[in-house]
Amino acid sequence: MSDTAKRAAEAQSLVADLIATARKAGAENADALYHESRSLSAGVRLGQPEDVESSESRELGLRVLLGKRQACVSTTDFAKSTLDELVGRAVSMARVAPEDAFCGLPDPAQLAKEPQDFDLFDGVELEMPQLLERARVAEAAATAVQGVTNSEGGSAGRAFSMSAYANTAGFNGAGWIGWHSVSVSAIAGRDTGMETDYDYEARTYLSDMPSPESVGKKAGERAVKRLNPRKLDSGAMPIVFDPRVSSGLIGHFLGAINGAGVARGTSFLKDRLGEMVFAPGISIIDDPLRRRGFRSRWFDLEGVAAPTRALIEDGRLTTWLLDCATARQLGMQSTGHASRGTSSPPSPAPTNVHLEPGKQTPTELMADIKEGLYVTHLIGMGVNGVTGDYSRGAAGFLIRNGEIAEPVAEITIAGNLKQMFANLVPANDLTIRFGTDAPTVRIDGMTVAGR
Questions:
Q1: Most buried residue, 210, 257, 301, 393, by most Cβ within 10 Å?
Q2: CA 324 to chain centre
Q3: d(Cα 393, Cα 377) in Å, to the nearest integer?
Q4: Per the record, where are the segments of Polar residues compositional bias (predicted)?
């Protein structure tokens, strides 16, 4: 048995013992979550070490249910006396907690049955000298780009986390993930004409990572391209979102279909289930079963299994993101999207999500744009989740006669997400890199506020 598998088995035994103790102490039902993580990171600036950080943590949480009352407690002390006290405190708290008509464990029929391996940990744990060298190489590649005059630093890291979850409905499982990262932030220009940009890459397998040199070079080239930006005249125009920022649009969509907001009536999509939200042909996929995915898992944190599913299918909204409580509140079933920390009850969250690519290349997507905006940076959080109103600071490049031209900055783009989703057209350049991914997208009819 590997060290990872051995530690997972120990964690599963720990959470099983904790919920058994809770039952003996008077709990009608209970669940327990164990989480551990460790990470190591190194940062350099101008070739010299600037910060090094090592972190390790272990946490254990218990949720006790007495009828429709629940209480959550957590600890980082795993001594038996502490855990016995933890159980007693949780049961006492549950007895006086207000009733929650929707709390409870899942139906046993919904529980995940078969553990699955998504190849989420390569076992490579680079040490500090290796991380410092990767950070130095990345930063050196950025500063070697002609026009780069300074650096905000480079960094490299690796991390590992494991969770084990058990409940009295009959589930006990564990999962783990590791990842590697490199980032660089470069500065181009001088005095008041300086611009900065960055690149960041992370993968679960070191062998899948781009080289530190390529990360640094891209950061430097991006910074130089932003030099001498101009302002745009205000008006309505097509906007093309670079993949670095287009995934944020999908993030706003995921927030709008979160069952907690829908149940509260605070989502601008709360009445749109089963309706066309995007244009025909558009699909958005939630895939918890992706190999080497950052949010891959074979169970959610209520033990529920979930398949890969289309959240948007041919433009139509097919589902909410639901845990057991929000599902009961909405008269539905959990979609297997429960997430939680050790000290709180579950709430819905997505897994690996991507917007399916379109048929046109990015060049073809913008070929007919006489004047438009290619956005590479978004600033601020001007998004109203209740109305869908959208207003963000932006920077990027002018699109002139179908081609990316000079840089622009100090502008605001605005619209409403309902119309933006309906008008969204994806390019064919999807790359799966993080937890939420999207290709280049075009949205016509947005408002630009410039000079």
A1: 257
A2: 21
A3: 8
A4: 332-344
CA-CA distances (angstroms) from residue 227 to 56, 220, 221?
Answer: 41, 12, 11
- What the block records as the tokens of 404 is 């990316």
Domain boundary among 193, 221, 249: 221
Residues 143 and 278 in one domain: no
Query: Do 174 and 208 fall into the same domain?
Result: yes
The rounded distance, in Å, linking the Cα atoms of 288 and 88 is 36
User: What are the pLDDT tens digits along the chain (451 aa)?
Assistant: 578 889 999 999 999 999 999 999 999 999 999 999 999 999 999 999 999 999 999 999 999 999 999 999 999 999 999 999 999 999 999 999 999 999 999 999 999 999 999 999 999 999 999 999 999 999 999 999 999 999 999 999 999 999 999 999 999 999 999 999 999 999 999 988 899 999 999 999 999 999 999 999 999 999 999 999 998 889 999 999 999 999 999 999 999 999 999 999 999 999 999 999 999 999 999 999 999 999 999 999 999 998 999 999 999 999 999 999 999 999 999 999 999 999 999 999 999 999 999 999 999 999 999 999 999 999 988 899 999 999 999 999 999 999 999 999 999 999 999 999 999 999 999 999 999 999 999 999 999 997 6
Segments of 189-321 assigned E as strands: 195-203, 235-241, 284-286, 309-313, 316-317
The contacts of residue 120 (CB under 8 Å, 6+ apart) are: 175, 176, 177, 178, 204, 292, 293, 296
- Decide: helix, strand or coil at residue 64: strand
Kindly state whether residues 188 and 318 are assigned to the same domain. Answer: no
State whether 379 and 448 are in the same domain: yes
**In which domain, by residue range, is 103 found?**
3-221
C-alpha distances in Å from residue 53, one per residue of 40, 127, 132, 198, 389? 6, 11, 11, 21, 40
* Burial status of residue 271 (CB atoms within 10 A of its CB: 0-12, 13-18, 19 or more): exposed
Quote the number of domains for the chain: 2
Q: What are phi and psi of 231, to 5 degrees?
A: -100, 155
Q: How far apart, in whole angstroms, are the C-alpha atoms of residue 79 and residue 56?
A: 18
Length of the chain: 451
Q: Of 165, 192, 221, which closes a domain?
A: 221
**In the chain, helix, strand, coil percent, each to 5?**
25, 40, 35
> How far apart, in Å, are the Cα atoms of 436 and each of 142, 212, 241, 286?
26, 23, 15, 9
CB atoms within 10 A of CB 292: 18
